[in-house]
Specification:
- This protein is about 35% helix and about 20% strand.
- The chain has helices spanning about 10-15, 20, 50-65, 100-105, 135-140, 150-155, 165-175, 190-205, 215-220, 225-245, 255-270, 330-350, 355-375, 385-395, 470-480, and strands spanning about 5, 45, 50, 75-80, 90, 95, 115-120, 125-130, 160, 180-185, 210, 275, 280, 305-310, 310, 315, 320-325, 420-425, 430, 445-450, 450-455, 460-465.
- The protein has a 7-stranded mixed beta sheet with strand order 1-9-8-7-4-10-11, sandwiched between helices.
- A hairpin with a 2-residue loop joins strand 15 (about 310) and strand 16.
- The termini are far apart.
């Protein structure tokens, strides 16, 4: 019977309400209410997110696939969503594991090398969670994992299987079905698991394979109430950790010392790890947008730019602050900083009045261009030339969506029209390399970025990272004391 564990739906729903109390008979690596009652309430798979919410997400995905224009002519659909796989830096030394965001969004499962299958029909859907076969030898080294029976009941899916049974499972699902469509991102070939799934898709002889990510990312961009709470938590952790890191600054400090402090404070406050390798760039190095070497010391009189964020149960914050390492802005540093801060504050106030990131960028060009013009960076120019001039000093976009990934839902274009309950960064920057002979001399060698995470709510923009100071006076006081 494929090693399947199946429970009638009504019985399963009843069990879900008491599962955390008496179903888990052995400890598993993933936090549960039984092992982590300080983090998870009964019925939650992640902080704030219940089993029923994951079930609703799978139902919504099934409905949208059924209604998709790409689905016309098909009565059966198979959605295949793989988890992330373990990766190794050398031999048996693993990298820190982070779950695939799309898989996590629909399961709440942190198990590596797993697969979610959803069979969508005219009348409904069935979900199947496939986890790696139990291996006593691996469990000796890595700890207990979810068996199919436990995975089925704990995560609220219809059936639990092992990944070794995927082919047989799909053959059973598609038996006597001649019209079906496979929804799978065939570009995912970086792991053994995704390569195996690719071969499975080929073996099915499917002529219609559609990438589900545009639909999935259209769901993920709008945050539920529970996701907003998760984002508030990770943004608070990130903001407080960066604030503390700023407070220990002093001339001569190593960039990696600030990196270490940021990571330490984030984990101390509940984050699992940093959301990405941070940028910690002193002086002219701040003009390298993604400077992540962080191996120099910051000298007296220099600014330090730090771009960092925390990851809390798969949700990311993304914050940037720039401050004087000695606690005092020079006049040129202060002038350029306040010009950029003026732009950022205006952009934040306007995010609810815009409905796409492309138009928000156009506003940034206009605002930053006006301020740079007043500071003598260039003379009055036309709109096309202004865009070129501004992009010279701010070569990146001013915003991206934020959530489970730092650059969240990448399958959505910048022209995507957002509504309320989305979270985005607002991060204008100005970068003046010391070698730029065309820039005003006083500003050469200065690189500044100011970034906050903003919730677009019914009542207007809410800055989730406001716990980290950014005014000139606040930053100077924080470093000095």
């Amino acid at each position: 019977m494929l090693g399947v564990f199946r429970v009638p739906r009504m019985v399963r729903l009843l069990k879900l309400s008491i599962i955390s109390r008496n179903f888990i008979t052995k400890p598993v690596i993933q936090p549960t209410h039984t092992t982590h009652p300080h983090l998870l309430k009964e019925g939650e798979l992640m902080p704030f997110v219940t089993v029923s919410e994951f079930e609703m997400r799978r139902k919504t995905l099934s409905q949208q696939i059924r209604e998709s224009a790409s689905a016309k002519g098909f009565t059966n659909h198979i959605v295949i969503l793989p988890s992330a796989s373990k990766a190794f830096m050398s031999g048996k030394i693993p990298y820190v594991f982070r779950q695939n965001s799309d898989f996590l969004y629909f399961t709440g499962c942190f198990e590596p090398d797993s697969v979610l299958l959803i069979h969508v029909t005219k009348s409904g859907h069935q979900s199947y969670l496939c986890v790696p076969p139990v291996d006593p030898h691996n469990e000796l080294w890595e700890g207990a994992k979810f068996e199919p029976a436990l995975a089925q009941a704990y995560f609220g899916v219809d059936e639990g299987h092992t990944t070794s049974a995927i082919c047989v499972l799909l053959e059973r699902i598609l038996k006597n079905t001649c019209s079906y469509c496979i929804w799978y991102d065939i570009t995912q070939l970086q792991t053994k698991l995704s390569k195996k799934l690719q071969s499975v898709v080929v073996s099915l002889g499917a002529k219609n394979v559609i990438n589900p990510l545009p639909i999935i990312h259209g769901m993920r961009v709008k945050k539920s109430d529970s996701e907003i709470e998760l984002m508030k938590k990770t943004c608070t952790i990130g903001a407080n950790s960066l604030k503390h890191t700023i407070s220990i600054s002093k001339p001569g400090i190593e960039e990696f010392r600030l990196w270490t402090e940021m990571e330490y404070q984030s984990k101390l406050n509940g984050a699992q790890f940093l959301a990405y390798p941070p940028v910690v760039a002193g002086g002219n190095r701040a003009n390298t947008i993604h400077y992540i070497y962080n191996n120099n010391s910051v000298q007296d009189g220099e600014l330090i730019l730090m771009d960092a964020g925390s990851d809390y149960f798969g949700y990311s914050s993304d914050i940037t602050r720039t401050w004087p390492i000695n606690g005092v802005f020079t006049n040129p540093q202060k002038t350029l900083y306040e010009a950029l801060l003026d732009v950022q504050l205006q952009l934040i106030s306007q995010v609810s009045n815009y409905d796409n990131l492309a138009d928000l960028y156009s506003l940034m060009v206009k605002l930053l261009g006006k301020n740079l013009l007043s500071l003598g960076f260039f003379k009055s120019v036309g709109a096309k030339e202004l865009n070129r001039k501004v992009s010279q000093y701010c070569p990146h976009h001013v915003s991206h969506f934020l959530g489970m990934d730092v650059h969240d839902v990448p399958n959505l274009p910048r022209s995507y029209r957002y509504e309320k309950d989305v979270i985005m960064t607002v991060e204008p920057g100005v970068y003046v390399p010391s070698s730029d002979d065309g820039a005003p001399k006083d500003f050469r060698g200065i690189g500044i970025r100011i970034e906050d995470d903003v919730l677009v709510s019914e009542s207007g923009p809410i800055v989730l990272t406001g716990g980290c100071p950014k005014s000139v006076n606040e930053l100077e006081v924080l470093v000095k004391h």
